[in-house]
Amino acid sequence: MTATVPSERRMANDIARNLGHLPRERAAAEIAGHIGRFWDPRMRTRLYEYVDAGAEELDPLVVAAVRLLR
Known about the structure:
The chain is mostly helical and 70 residues long. It is built from four helices and no strands.
């Protein structure tokens, strides 16, 4: 049986993986900027809810980015 990862979590982690070479604060700001510019508000809401629920399986850079977005 294969567990599926919701698209918001997968995409956010992919973005973090691609920007992980940057210094932490800059990477978080770049991730926040990307999510803020390109993600549908419903997608952002689902990501926020996931972070509020504990953010298991999310890259710490994504959690930092969500804090900047809020």
